[in-house]
Specification:
The chain is of the alpha/beta class. Helix content is about 25%, strand content about 15%. It has 12 helices and 11 strands. It has helices at about 40-45, 65-75, 90-95, 105-115, 135-145, 170-175, 195-210, 265-270, 295-305, 320-335, 365-380, 390-395, and strands at about 235, 245, 250-255, 275-285, 290-295, 310-315, 345-350, 385-390, 410, 430-435, 445-450. The protein has an 8-stranded mixed beta barrel with strand order 3-4-6-7-8-9-10-11. A two-stranded antiparallel sheet has the order 1-2. Helix 5 (about 135-145) crosses helix 6.
């Protein structure tokens, strides 16, 4: 490629061939969900094809660099670990004078050079931070496909003659492949730079067309969901306390608390006959996504344990990617390491309907992928992972239980007069009231009944919950 001067502007001059899909959330505050580029950026984030400039910023209007595009193509190829020449072959080890082993995209650029995807400039440099032009994008994609023996039909761009000779075949191909379709006035503007948002859209289209990728995370194969087989006639409500019993099998009673309950007198709570407490460890903010420890977590854990109660913990998640869910799980593990947690460690994902909520409109595929990521981290640490949800969020656009049958479920369903739940799937804990009155707690508190047929103690250092799997 010959080095070209930078185009004067970064105006949107490329009509992108976007496949219509629902608008998608990303973890970047500078990517509005209503923006045209939210879906391609979310797609690239889901498939880890294109990173933001930082954890907090994607910078959609900034120029796409040559290194960033090479990195995307490298990741699409599976980030191969092939050695491009031996250690003694310095030309292969460092194919360009301006790309050393310490460059963050070194492996990708070396791979791209070794596989004929890029050839660099005539002076032997690559210009990794140079903005990439439209004709360069076409050429990189064409090279990635290995070219074709047959010359593609001529693209109908009015400025096709302005395309560099080395890129014209690639531009014709990119048009025919519906990767790049030009402007409404018929021009292509080959030397204009592409923005990072445009780059994400092109990478998404390319990944769909040539790698078979689709919007959404890849989930394990669905399995039959175990039905609700509890005996509704066996539920018994104490009219004085409002506590629920189950007369047809083992059960324990419990509450779940957070900073909303403030100071709790745990000796008085234990005296009411409560067996366990599910304690909120922390949460992720619903706007900026910061992780925050519950202000009363340690106090509640010590109080419940010191008064003979068993404890489980939950994290109020607002994760938008499995990576964020894993981050939440690892933070939670750090918080609970000093405590004897014998009840489950729970992933509690709840959509917020506020206008500025980062999770607003999030789809079930994403929520389920986050749940799986969280549970795997917790399971590998030797605890029992659990999922939390309401009938509405399970039946509609929340966690998809058919992909989560390896884990127990905590049902939140408040029925009229505490009638037996109509939830048709199996659950292990039922949060049956949000307006319970328990001595030792000022105000209302959630009441729970656990119908697990044995305790949650770990077996051999790892949780044993084979008994709760589907038939």
């Amino acid at each position: 490629m010959k080095k070209k001067s930078l185009a004067a502007g970064l105006a949107l001059a490329l009509t992108l061939s976007l496949t219509p899909v629902q608008a998608a959330n990303t973890t970047y505050p500078d990517v509005a969900r209503t923006a045209w580029y939210s879906t391609p950026i979310a797609f690239c984030q889901q498939h880890q094809l294109m990173d933001g400039v930082s954890r907090e910023r994607f910078q959609p209007e900034a120029p796409l660099t040559r290194a960033a595009l090479a990195e995307s193509l490298y990741r699409l190829a599976g980030s191969p670990l092939e050695a491009a020449g031996g250690e003694d072959n310095q030309d292969e080890a460092s194919p360009f004078a301006d790309v050393g082993p310490d460059h963050p995209n070194f492996a990708a650029i070396r791979w791209a050079k070794h596989n004929g995807v890029v050839s660099g400039y005539e002076d032997g440099s690559f210009g990794p931070e140079d903005p990439v032009t439209r004709e360069q994008i076409a050429s990189l994609l064409w090279n990635q496909q290995g070219g074709q023996e047959q010359e593609p039909p001529r693209a109908p761009f009015t400025d096709l003659e302005a395309v560099s000779d080395w890129a014209r075949t690639a531009v014709n191909w990119a048009y025919q492949a519906k990767m790049m379709s030009g402007n409404t006035d018929g021009t292509f503007l080959p030397q204009n730079n592409a923005t990072r948002a445009e780059g994400a859209a092109i990478v998404m289209n390319y990944a769909k067309a040539f790698y078979g990728l689709s919007y959404g995370y890849t989930l394990p194969a669905p399995r039959a969901v175990r039905p609700n087989t509890y005996n509704n006639a066996a539920y018994s409500l104490d009219p004085e306390t409002g506590f629920l019993s189950y007369l047809d099998g083992p059960y324990t009673r419990g509450i779940d608390v957070s900073a909303h309950q403030k100071e709790v007198d745990w000796s008085r709570v234990a005296a009411t006959g409560m067996d366990f407490a599910m304690i909120r460890a922390g949460y992720r903010g619903y706007t900026q996504g910061a992780i925050v420890k519950d202000a009363y977590f340690d106090t509640n854990m010590r109080g419940a344990l010191n008064n003979g109660m068993q404890v489980g913990v939950y994290f109020f998640s607002q994760a938008l990617t499995p990576a964020e869910a894993e981050e939440e799980a690892y933070m939670l593990l750090d918080w609970i390491r000093a405590y004897n947690v014998t009840y489950p460690v729970v992933f509690d994902w709840e959509e917020q309907d506020k206008e500025d909520s980062r999770t607003q409109g999030c789809d079930g595929n994403t929520v389920t992928a986050c749940a799986l990521a969280f549970c795997k981290v917790i399971q590998n640490a030797g605890y029992t992972p659990m999922l939390y949800g309401s009938p509405k969020k399970v039946y509609t656009n929340g966690i998809l239980l058919e992909h989560l049958q390896d884990y127990p479920f905590w049902l939140a369903h408040y029925t009229k007069d505490t009638a037996p739940t109509s939830f048709r799937y199996h659950y292990n804990i039922w949060q049956y009231s949000s307006s319970g009155a328990v001595d030792g707690i000022d105000g209302r508190v959630d009441l729970n009944i656990c119908l697990t047929p044995n305790n949650w103690s770990n077996v051999g250092g790892r949780p044993d919950y084979s008994w709760l799997l589907p038939f």
